[in-house]
Specification:
By secondary structure, the protein is of the alpha/beta class. It has helices spanning about 20-25, 25-40, 55-60, 80-100, 110-120, 150, 170-180, 195-205, 220-225, 255-270, 275-290, 295-315, 340-350, 375, 380-395, 400-410, and strands at about 45, 70, 75, 105, 130, 155-160, 185, 210-215, 235-240, 250-255, 320, 330-335, 355, 355-360, 365-370. The chain binds pyridoxal-5'-phosphate. Its main location: cytoplasm.
């Protein structure tokens, strides 16, 4: 294998070289530098985000980006795939080992592409799909009218109990019995609790439906043993690789042997063209990292951090939906402080605290959705979460000193302590 030459004049280079970008395209280099500074300067609490490792970034920025590779290892439509085939074989083996799945497809370009492929493998246009309704925390691919899922399927939405915010399994069962869906989807963009996968399996079996788990958010916790796995229960598991799992932006599918061929054909050639081999190599790196003991520690710390942050926010007067969290995710209602979600997000942003708004289980108001994956990757623990809760409250009250506190805290936990492109 070629070795990276540290000399700035090295002519042959297998991967990213920020110095070259700065020389040849200072305009885009400035964007990259500016984003690195923005990510490091504030508190990144967007629940779907994380900081990938320098090794993942190196694979992403490598010459594997040059390679066309339609098809699967050993059966490609392009020549010269023998080297990159190895990256995909390693990624698939690591994914299977990490999640205890019989089959893995690591080619989906995104979480949405993974869901599209799962539906393509199992459903025909016009089939009925039972998934979490968007106002309750369903993803766009779970039946939004603006998404292919809402256009091509007859989608029935289940919800959460308005008072407890918890999944209402009796309602899921009743809707399944009434509508006889071809597939049931379990998964959400904002549900902070573990779904009961066994209960969903039972309901799916009762009505003869496939069970699709869209574990885009919790799959990283599953990898670290900090959340129950949907793999033993679902016919197909869809996931992203870039959320708590901390890999490159992308998707993944897991299933049993009996659906393996249908899933593979649903990805390529049905919904995608050539695989992105640099991303697949980066996924392999991330799966390798996630198999190490340090990742298990991280995944459990993510959950502890979310619990402590939730307790802190509750003590500051915010209302936590479902009363807390089992995961990296928190959804909170700032209404008790006299703010709606949008105003709250703007005040937090002004202090350098970055997060999203979300729907709430009740009413029309917006809440706030946040997660602890990125700050945990930075090395923050429970003590820092208590501080984040205090800064949150300061920022929501519009106090100027919140911004200084955020900067000071973030400075102590740089996401890339050794990154060559820092300041
Ligand atoms: C993030 C997410 C997706 C989509 O992932 P993209 O990579 O943005 O396409 C799908 N489903 C759920 C539940 C998600 O949280």
């Amino acid at each position: 294998m070629p070795v990276v030459d540290a000399s700035p004049t090295a002519p042959a280079h297998p991967g990213a070289d920020f110095g070259t970008l700065e020389r040849l395209d200072p305009e885009i280099a400035a964007v990259v530098r500016g984003e690195a500074e923005r990510e490091a300067a504030g508190l990144q609490l967007v629940a779907a985000e994380n900081f990938t490792s320098p090794a993942v970034l190196a694979a992403l920025g490598s010459v594997l980006a040059n390679k066309y590779a339609e098809g699967y290892p050993g059966a490609r439509h392009h020549g010269g795939c023998e080297v990159v085939d190895e990256a995909e074989r390693i990624a698939v083996d690591r994914a299977k080992g990490l999640f205890g799945a019989a089959h893995a497809n690591v080619q989906p370009h995104s979480g949405s592409a993974a869901v599209l492929a799962a539906y393509a493998a199992l459903l025909k246009p016009g089939d009925t799909l039972l998934a979490m309704g968007l106002p309750s925390g369903g993803h766009l691919t779970h039946g939004a009218p603006s998404n292919f899922s809402g256009r091509w399927f007859d989608v029935v939405g289940y919800g959460v109990d308005a008072r407890s915010g918890l999944l209402d399994y009796a309602q899921v069962r009743e809707l399944a019995r009434t509508h006889r869906p071809r597939a049931i989807v379990v998964g959400s963009i904002s549900y902070p609790r573990h779904p009961d996968y066994a209960a969903f399996r039972e309901i799916a079996d009762e009505v003869g439906a496939y069970l699709v788990a869209d574990a885009a958010h919790p799959i990283g916790l599953v990898a670290g043993g900090a959340a129950p796995s949907p793999v033993p229960y679902a016919d197909v598991v869809c996931a992203t690789t870039h959320k708590v799992l901390r890999g490159p932006r992308g998707g993944m599918l897991l299933c049993g042997e009996e659906l393996a061929e249908r899933i593979d054909r649903a990805v390529f050639p049905f919904t995608q063209g050539g695989a992105q081999m640099h991303t697949i190599a980066a996924k392999a790196v991330a799966f390798g990292e996630a198999a190490r003991p340090a990742f298990t520690t991280y995944a459990h710390q993510v959950v502890s951090n979310a619990r402590v942050l939730g307790e802190g926010l509750a003590a500051e007067g915010l209302a936590l939906t479902t009363g807390g969290t089992d995961t990296h995710l928190l959804t909170v209602d700032p209404a008790p402080l006299g703010l709606d979600g949008r105003e709250a997000r703007a005040r937090l942003a002004a202090a350098g605290i970055v997060l999203d708004t979300c729907a709430l289980p009740y009413g029309e108001g917006r809440g706030l959705r946040l997660g602890t994956a990125a700050v945990t990757t930075q090395g923050m623990g429970e003590a820092q979460m208590a501080r984040v809760a205090a800064l949150f409250a300061l920022a929501l009250r519009g106090e100027r000193r919140a911004a200084g506190g955020v900067r000071e805290l973030a400075r102590r936990f740089p996401p890339y302590p050794d990154a060559p492109f820092r300041g």
